[in-house]
Design brief:
By secondary structure, this protein is of the alpha/beta class. It has one domain: HUPs (Rossmann fold), CATH 3.40.50. Helices cover about 35% and strands about 10% of the residues. The protein has seven helices and five strands, in the order E-H-E-H-E-H-E-H-H-E-H-H. A five-stranded parallel β-sheet has the order 3-2-1-4-5, with helices on both faces. Helix 1 links the parallel strand 1 and strand 2. It is globular and about 55 Å long.
Length: about 230
């Protein structure tokens, strides 16, 4: 029998690839997404499409309100930065960083994993082609996994939990090539932080720039529908 795994599914390239890898490695995926007060619902619709595409056993959409305290352009009316040079390696953390988001998401995933009696969580964090978020670093994942095994009934009972980060050290191009090999339909995914009303990607936010470069570097056509600028 396949082992159960909770897969955090945002609707983007990385989480879709993670779901494909979990299935390829013999796990039965239970997908978890979040309606957390983000500025649009396009990514959640993408997560639903991806969950259906992979035939996950269950897809839980958790409602929490991170907009209540804001602190990010994704959970407030603050403008999303556009046309940044994402290759400069600047230590500046952009305002699209949502305070404690991955910590919160992993905590919900951890709780569901205990209920499901599964020992595996997949998350598509990446420390190469990303926007500099501190909760995408390997140090964070290692610390969280240690905490999880100290803080849960399963952990103290000797049933240790593993947080899988198969994309952690890959470039976006490598992720796209890997996902393509696994049969991921990237036309179902969404990455844009600030899409148009019709769901078209802006093409200018950090996430769009990284996405476009990833497809170009991978030599794979980008299926994204971008805003047509006059």
């Amino acid at each position: 029998m396949n082992k159960k795994a909770v897969v955090l599914l945002s609707g983007g390239i990385d989480s879709a690839t993670c779901c494909a890898l979990a299935k390829r490695n013999g796990f039965e995926p239970y997908a978890m997404s979040f309606s957390y007060g983000q500025r649009h619902s396009v990514e959640l619709n993408a997560a639903r499409r991806i969950a259906s595409f992979f035939g996950v056993t269950s897809h839980s959409i958790v409602e929490i309100n991170l907009r209540a305290f804001g602190g990010s352009s994704l959970t407030s009316d603050e403008s999303v930065p556009k046309h940044r040079d994402v290759d400069t390696g600047t230590p500046e953390i952009p305002n699209t960083y949502v305070p404690a988001r991955n910590t919160i998401f992993l905590s919900f995933a951890l709780g569901w994993a205990e209920v499901l009696e599964c020992r595996d969580i997949f998350i598509g964090v990446n420390a190469v082609d990303y926007s500099g978020y501190p909760d995408c670093r390997p140090e964070f994942i290692a610390a969280y996994q240690k905490m999880a095994n100290l803080a849960t009934k399963a952990g103290v009972g000797g049933h240790s939990l593993t947080i899988h980060t198969p994309l952690l050290s890959l470039t976006k191009a490598q992720i796209i090539r890997l996902g393509t090999e696994c049969g991921v339909d990237y036309g179902l995914t969404h990455s844009c932080y600030d899409p148009a009303d019709d769901g078209s990607a802006c093409g200018a936010c950090d996430s769009c720039i990284i996405r476009k470069k990833g497809f170009a570097d991978a030599g794979i056509p980008d299926p994204t529908r971008y805003v047509q600028l006059s």
